[in-house]
Every structure is written in structure tokens, then in C-alpha cells.
Amino acid sequence: MSPHFHQASQIQFQLPDWVRSLAAEQACLAGLEQRMDLVIEASRRNVAQGDGPFAAAVFEQDSGQLIALGVNQVSRQGLSILHGEIVAICLAQRRLGVYDLGTEGLPAYQLVTSTEPCAMCLGAICWSGLRSVVSGATEADAQAGGFDEGPKPADWVAELRQRGIQVQTQLQRSEAAAVLQTYRQAGGPVYNGRGQ
Amino acid sequence: MSPHFHQASQIQFQLPDWVRSLAAEQACLAGLEQRMDLVIEASRRNVAQGDGPFAAAVFEQDSGQLIALGVNQVSRQGLSILHGEIVAICLAQRRLGVYDLGTEGLPAYQLVTSTEPCAMCLGAICWSGLRSVVSGATEADAQAGGFDEGPKPADWVAELRQRGIQVQTQLQRSEAAAVLQTYRQAGGPVYNGRGQ
Hints:
Two copies of one chain form a homodimer.
Chain A: E1 10-14, H1 17-24, H2 32-48, E2 55-60, E3 66-71, H3 74-77, H4 84-96, E4 109-115, H5 119-128, E5 132-137, H6 139-144, H7 156-162, E6 166-168, H8 173-185
Parallel strand pairs in A: 4-5, 5-6
Antiparallel strand pairs in A: 2-3, 2-4
Helix pairs in contact in A: 2-8, 4-5
């Protein structure tokens, strides 16, 4: 027995109130551009709050009803998994009460993300039950901002499509990439895995 | 304004008490085999509890002190991201109070996982600050158990090594794979992404 070992048995993370407020202001967003505008606005505000320049949201694909809005919370919550996509997926699954958003009988759900998914989020999308992904800034834009996307197959779009997940990239790309650039120019911390 | 939208602003998940108890029984585990034995035992008990056949733990690499023990909690907690590796990484980061386990001045931390990481967990390892990974059952064993590992680069070991993360695979492989087989034979639910 080790008297020194007391493992926590609970993990909790809290979204900032401004995310909840921003989400509460939204009606159904019929067009993809409107959905992306919201996500880019969330990424911009997250930078203004001192957090990472990334946001994502889950929508009901056909109606555009917002289900969950997430922002990068790695440094604020002290957990490296808390990319915007992961936050949005967790909130959506809890809101809908299912770990598989593709459960039969549910409407199709869509992820809209300000930057295309990193390796971790790409895998997470596959297990989430999401039926489509729309992204703004590209891997090249993320790299130009100093961010690593991780060990991702070169043709990640084809990998998702093979799994029945529709993909559209580069929607409002320049607006999304501009947030990455603003963050970089302001000298915001960039956390990556380690090199050799 | 949508009066119907009330986004949760908090996510919480709880580990079963037996995981905490099992972790509390461990002293330092000097040998890699002992560390893997613990993780395989946790994966076996997780199956007995009706959950998925996967477990992982974070250890202080040199001393073998257990930092966090995690088990797959996807169905129990209703969140698709809760693979054993993700649970262990989150618990370790919260216990140590850092989102980067590779922070200068900290000892090196190691992940021991009963089955090699899926695409999501591979990415998560890169962002965690872990310095080494030891795995038991292989991707082929997972596939034989009916599980998909997702869009993972073929040479995932090299991808981790390029990022300064040591890797050892197939430690106690047959014992780890036997748990996957037991689960399959018992008809436990297998959740994968969707095919075409």
C-alpha cells in the first residue's frame, strides 16, 4: 500500500461564461457561412480572453440549430485534450444524452471548426457519430501560426469520407486564418509536441 | 434569441470506485512488466464491470510510481472521447497541476496502455508531454476483437519517436489480447466509426 497515492476519481472542466452567453444569442443558423462566422467570432474572442485561437461548434446539420459551442481551453483548464473540437463534442454528447451522435433516429450532426482538425481531433470525430465536418483555416495556416497538427494521414479528408463523414474545407479560410495570425503577432503561447 | 438553447458550461466525469481502490493498492512498480500487469488487470476488471476492454496508466518513468490509472468509460459516462489513455492523461495532468507533463523540472512520465493507441489517442499523446509509451495488444489484435483504430499513420511508432517520445510495443501482448478476445466472445458491444 502506498499511503502517498490518492488518485482523483473525477475530472471536471468549466467553460467561461462568455461562451455560454454567445451561444445563447444564436437562433438557427441556416447557412454554412453563418455557422462558420459564429465559430470564427468565438475563436477571436477566445484570443481576447488570453486563450488559444481555436473554436468549434456542433450544429444540427439540416436546420442549423446550435447544439454546442466549444473553444480551446487547454491552458485555462490545464488539460491538453481540450481543443475546441473536443469541448464541442463533449458538450453536444452530454446535451443530447448519447455518446454516439449518429444514433439511429437522431438528426445528422455537423461539426464546424475554425481550423481543420489536428490528429487527435480527427480521431475523435470518427468516434463521435458526427456526420459532417466543415473547416476554415488549413493545416498550412496553422503551421504558419506556429502550430503542429500532429501525426495525421496526408489524406485526412478521404479517411473521413471513407467512414461516411462528409467534409468541406476552407470555408471563410482567410477570416479564420487571420485569427491565427493575430494570435501569433500578439506573441500568444504556442504549445506543440516536442521535436527530436 | 433562442429561448430553447441552454448550453451546459460544465463537463464532469467520474471514475468507478474500484479503479481508485485498485490504484491505491499499488506501490512503485519498478519493472515494465509489473506496470503492464496492472493495466491488463484493470482492462480485465473493466470488462467484468460491463465496460470496454481497455485500460491505461501514467507512471513516473524511472521510479515506476503510479500517477493515474484510467479505464475506458465511453458507455458508462456517455462521452466518446473517454478511452483509457485519455482518462489516464487527464487524471495525471490534474494530479500534477500541469497540462504539459513534459514541463521542465518534472520527471519523465510514461504511458502504459493495454492496446496500442487509436488515432485519437495517438494525437493526444503528442500534446500531453508524455515521454514514452508502452503498449500490449496490437492494432491487429484490436481488429480481431472487432475494433477500428481509426485514421492512423501506418508508421505511428516513427511519428512518436520523431517527436521525442520513446515507444515499446507488444509487451505482454498475448495477455492483453486475451482480454479483447474474452470481451468479444462475451458479445460485449463494439463501437466503431461508421463505414461507407
